[in-house]
């Protein structure tokens, strides 16, 4: 039986089995999933992460404020630590004056090398605890891209794992088909009686 495909004639291949056709269509489906669906999942996850990060940054800006404080003890004895690529800092006691509350003290991170009596700017939350500055636009976009890339990679991994499982099952089925066909044809081909 002949069929018309894209303006040219195509003969059916007698060696092509149903499992071969299914493998071809499965491969096409996997290609579409990898090229279209996985990136869409990454974009959707990135979009969600961007909105979430912007909301968090907005809440941080509402809760945090930058205050000029006086360092009570210097950083020479403190062990410096670096946070997220920022300059090394150390936790020391600082003092500042709150309007209506008077003088307050707290532990805050200041740049290493700051001496007692110097004034620096630190970020404090509504309870007067030292906190990191609110996330800026760069941090929000870094978070967005990271989540989007990770979601895309996760989708790709799931798609490829699913394809491997389907391919393994199809191979077992194909080997079973070949085994049955060989059992039927082998006596005629080898001139042996079954």
UniProtKB/TrEMBL annotation:
It comes from the Bacteria. Keywords: Membrane, Transmembrane, Transmembrane helix. The chain crosses the membrane at residues 21-49, 140-166. InterPro entries: MT1774/Rv1733c-like. This is Integral membrane protein.
